[in-house]
């Protein structure tokens, strides 16, 4: 590769643009995914959370497959191209699955065949998980391959730019994609524009693929040289089998169980595997951290849907709150490195990497305690409005109604309809389960249209609709059916049998309940809406989204001291040609963490969301204590010194060592010299945990 600009290979610019577009595509799609499950596919919170974390788990399991394919079969370039095609198809399928008009045969805005949309989405997500995970370990390594050995400085700068492109793509996508989702689009009826929210990431993935292929002739393409991860797994498997065969007392014991691989593998490899296994043992408690961390895109986003997103001139969408994390990352990483850590050093405190990770897990637990406190305030802000107990007497001054949403029964339950001048007592329509724990937990409003004053003046049957919701035909002195209307600007269309129509607009806040009174003096025509009276029965939930910022701050601070430190520690405690093995183990902890979430979400079934947050916080604190105990007995090592002991021991081992070091640069595209720049860059955000 002789084509250069300012000393840099031209090919790396194609790789950086490709990475920007791919990360925009992935994080943009993921930002709106849980809301797509909830509001388009009509899944409840638990199922939406379960499928979301199942998808994320697969995204962090498939990189191991991608690395093996690239190193042992296709090579990095072909692996990236082929799996990017799979990835692009997945994004396109997701965009198609969100088009409600495909199965909306009666043109009422409601898909008739929801199973079709569910099936398409699952196919799309499966392809995306295979694609994004498969190319994850290849792109950065392929970029590193473009540099010669003497270009260490340029390679280091490349990785800084590379991670900056990752952060730029993920940050912009989590801002833009929710804005696209909030638009309304459709052929027959206007709905939230999920096709656009998924379509733009799909288009960016097409661009990423085209840009990467355009640079094909300029790339330095290294041939597959075998995967060190496979060799390590074979060595461990042989040691376990050999130890099992010699489990009886007549066989002499060996110092370490890996020494049972000595019959087949050289001492240098065995020593390297011992160092890796020692680090991987410390990985065992780590999935619990990721179980909490990745709920920013599921539970915390769902929590934001129940809060007020009005920031004055801006209205923040619930899924846009996720942008707080990347913004804080860019602020906190340099502060930690330039201010906090130096201050701790001046205080003569030995703040070792394992101690930093322990603090990171503790901060994540505090974040979920903060989330639980926010959830309690959300619940109180609704339930304090109408605290009901059995036998309570209510004497309203105007026509009103009370609606209670039961968490275990996702439907509005009418308690009693009131008439002025009369006392009413709560009866047992709800099975005697009225208590202070009743709450609204969906992003919907309970709207009742009451024709109490319509009895004497108007004799025509009226039909009232808003969007795709139909209140049904309502006769005089009768009440319409209840309807759940999304928050925001609602437009009601009132028609009579003669075809006369009146449009009435009302801005609705989450958790509120309104009574719309159509009086006897109501007349169709100009200014007809002015004669309609509005009574606010239950105030909207006004607990602000800004209260989520403390929990985001805590989880991000935890991420900075946990994730960056974790990888830095890992690579300092194992040979550099084993970096791909440690990266695979690290990604596996992320996958297992997401599996923990879906297990807890399905198994715990706690009645209150705040209790689930406390459960996760308690589990992480318990695991944090276990990790601190394990870290206390850990002895830090110098891998180079251990390797040096075997460098001159056996001529055969020298030849084996030479063959083993083929993974030293090829394992992740970085030489030993740029280890720090590629994994602890201040620009690193999402991929601070090797999320490339």
Automatic annotation (TrEMBL):
Q: Which residues cross the membrane?
A: 47-68, 80-102, 114-135, 156-176, 196-215, 275-293, 327-345, 357-378, 581-601, 613-634
- GO BP annotations listed: oligopeptide transport; protein transport
The molecular function GO annotations come to:
symporter activity
Q: Where is the composition biased (Basic and acidic residues)?
A: 649-692
> Where does this protein chiefly localize?
membrane
The segments labelled Disordered in the record are 648-692
Cell compartments where the protein resides: Membrane
Q: Name one Pfam family in it.
A: PTR2
Name of the featured protein: Solute carrier family 15 member 1b
- What organism does the record attribute this protein to? Labrus bergylta
């Amino acid at each position: 590769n002789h084509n250069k600009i300012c000393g840099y290979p031209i090919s790396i610019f194609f790789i950086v643009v490709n990475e920007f577009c791919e990360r925009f595509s992935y994080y943009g799609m993921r930002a709106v995914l849980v809301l797509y499950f909830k509001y388009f596919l009509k899944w409840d919170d638990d199922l939406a959370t379960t499928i979301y974390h199942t998808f994320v788990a697969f995204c962090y399991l498939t990189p191991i497959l991608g690395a093996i394919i690239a190193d042992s079969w296709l090579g990095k370039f072909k692996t990236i191209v082929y799996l990017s095609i799979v990835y692009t198809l997945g994004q396109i399928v997701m965009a198609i699955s969100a088009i409600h008009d495909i199965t909306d045969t009666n043109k009422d805005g409601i898909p008739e065949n929801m199973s079709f949309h569910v099936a398409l989405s699952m196919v799309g997500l499966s392809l995306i998980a295979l694609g994004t995970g498969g190319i994850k370990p290849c792109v950065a390594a392929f970029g590193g391959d473009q540099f010669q050995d003497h270009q260490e400085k340029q390679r280091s700068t490349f990785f800084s730019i590379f991670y900056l492109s990752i952060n730029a793509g993920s940050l912009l996508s989590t801002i833009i994609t929710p804005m696209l989702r909030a638009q309304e689009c459709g052929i027959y009826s206007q709905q939230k524009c999920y096709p656009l929210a998924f379509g733009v990431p799909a288009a960016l993935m097409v661009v990423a693929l085209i840009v990467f292929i355009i640079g094909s002739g300029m790339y330095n393409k290294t041939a597959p040289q075998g995967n060190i991860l496979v060799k390590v797994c074979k060595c461990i498997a042989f040691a376990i089998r050999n130890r099992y065969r010699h489990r009886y007392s007549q066989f002499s014991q060996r110092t370490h169980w890996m020494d049972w691989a000595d019959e087949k593998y050289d001492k240098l490899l065995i020593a390297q595997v011992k160092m890796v296994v020692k680090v991987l043992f410390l990985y065992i408690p780590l999935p619990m951290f990721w179980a909490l961390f990745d709920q920013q895109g599921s539970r915390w986003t769902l929590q934001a849907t129940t809060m007020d997103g009005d920031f004055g001139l801006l209205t923040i969408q619930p899924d846009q709150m996720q942008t707080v994390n990347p913004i804080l990352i860019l602020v906190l990483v340099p502060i930690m490195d330039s201010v906090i850590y130096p201050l701790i050093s001046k205080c003569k405190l030995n703040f070792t990497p394992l101690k930093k990770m322990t603090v990171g897990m503790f901060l994540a637990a505090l974040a979920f305690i903060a989330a639980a406190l926010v959830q309690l305030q959300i619940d109180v802000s609704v339930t304090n409005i109408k605290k009901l107990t059995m036998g309570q007497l209510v004497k309203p001054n105007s026509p009103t109604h009370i609606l209670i949403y039961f968490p275990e029964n996702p439907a509005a339950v009418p308690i009693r309809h009131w008439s002025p001048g009369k006392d009413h007592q709560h009866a047992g329509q709800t099975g005697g389960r009225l208590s202070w724990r009743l709450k609204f937990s969906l992003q919907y409003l309970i709207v009742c249209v009451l024709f109490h004053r319509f009895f004497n003046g108007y004799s025509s049957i009226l039909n009232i609709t808003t969007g795709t919701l139909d209140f049904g035909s309502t006769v005089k002195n009768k009440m319409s059916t209840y309807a759940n209307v999304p928050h925001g600007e609602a437009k009601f269309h009132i028609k009579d049998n003669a075809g006369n129509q009146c449009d009435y607009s009302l801005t609705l806040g989450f958790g509120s309940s309104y009574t719309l009174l159509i009086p006897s003096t109501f007349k169709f025509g100009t200014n007809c809406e002015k004669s309609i009276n509005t009574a606010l029965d239950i105030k909207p939930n006004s607990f602000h989204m800004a209260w989520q910022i403390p929990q985001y701050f805590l989880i991000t601070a935890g991420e900075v001291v946990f994730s960056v430190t974790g990888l830095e520690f890992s690579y300092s405690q194992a040979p550099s040609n084993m970096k791909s093995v440690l990266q695979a183990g690290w990604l596996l902890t992320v996958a297992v963490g997401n599996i923990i979430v879906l297990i807890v979400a399905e198994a715990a079934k706690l009645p209150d969301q705040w209790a689930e947050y406390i459960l996760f916080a308690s589990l992480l604190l318990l695991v944090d204590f276990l990790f601190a105990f394990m870290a206390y007995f850990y002895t830090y090592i110098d891998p180079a010194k251990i390797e040096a002991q075997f460098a001159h021991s056996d001529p055969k081992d020298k030849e084996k060592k030479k063959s083993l070091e083929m993974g030293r640069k090829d394992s992740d595209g970085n030489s030993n010299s740029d280890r720090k720049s590629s994994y602890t860059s201040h620009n690193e955000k999402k991929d601070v945990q090797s999320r490339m």
